[in-house]
Amino acid sequence: MKFFIDTANLEQIKEAQDMGILDGVTTNPSLMAKEGITGTDNILKHYVDICQIVDGDVSAEVISTDFEGMVREGEALAELHDQIVIKLPMIKDGIKACKYFTDKGIKTNVTLVFSPGQALLAAKAGATYVSPFIGRLDDISTDGLNLISEIRHIYDNYGFETQILAASVRHTMHVIDCAKIGADVMTGPLSSIAGLLKHPLTDIGLEKFLADYKKGN
Ligand code: G3P
User: Fold this and answer.
1) What is the rounded distance in angstroms from the CA atom of residue 172 to the CA atom of residue 16?
2) Of 163, 156, 91, 166, which Cα lies nearest the Cα of 129?
3) Does 216 have pLDDT greater than 90?
């Protein structure tokens, strides 16, 4: 399973990259605003800064909601760097734009996916990634992980190559459960990745190994 970090915070992206396990980055307008990155020029520059830190795919989201606007924005984003993936909303024009970029060989990520039918449409349009938001479904008492299972089942039935990018991951158990189900990618905050390191028996065991080594030296 690929690990993407879901942030526009350059320090956190660097920290995950330094661990050697980072496969890419996802962003959205809310994550940009959280880091105080506003204005088109600053946002575009920030995408390039992110691409210079990581080796893998970096999702950059359009803010247009009409086909022409998405194409215009997406083409400008794709020009920025060859790691940029065009992130499109799961609406009719977003699907149409997805097909347009797929036909041009430009990678896409269809976002704000909350149902298996939406994921099926994204795959039909040739999306590189589909982003089901599991945390936000959990927030409204709906099983987000079940959506990942349903999409996995449908995609495997037909051999769709669209990668399931489990998004809105909130914690380590989401990561582990997504890996069990067979999500292709997960994207979450640094804490959901770094939390996987933790086990008290590891800390206790290491402490004992080091203490025993010191006894003999
Ligand atoms: O990847 C989608 C993500 O940014 C949404 O996460 O935690 O705001 O639901 P969250």
Assistant:
1) 15
2) 163
3) no
Q: Which residues contact 85 (CB under 8 A, 6 or more apart)?
A: 57, 58, 59, 60, 107, 108, 109, 128, 129
pLDDT tens, residue by residue, 100-109:
999 999 999 9
Query: Separation of 35 CA from ligand 1 center, angstroms?
Result: 15
- Regarding the beta carbon of 7 and ligand 1, being less than 6 Å apart is answered no
Q: How far is the CA of 133 from the centre of ligand 1 (A)?
A: 7
Asked about 87 being catalytic, the answer comes back as: yes
* pLDDT tens digits along 39-63: 999 999 999 999 999 999 999 999 9
- How far apart are the C-alpha atoms of 157 and 153, rounded to whole Å? 6
Long-range CB contacts (< 8 A, 24+ apart) of 44-51?
44/76, 44/77, 44/80, 46/8, 47/77, 47/80, 47/81, 47/84, 48/80, 48/81, 49/10, 50/8, 50/10, 50/13, 50/25, 51/80, 51/81, 51/83, 51/84
Which of 133, 138, 164, 171 for a ligand 1 pocket mutation test, highest count of atoms within 8 Å of Cβ? 133
14, 87, 107, 198: which one is catalytic?
Answer: 87
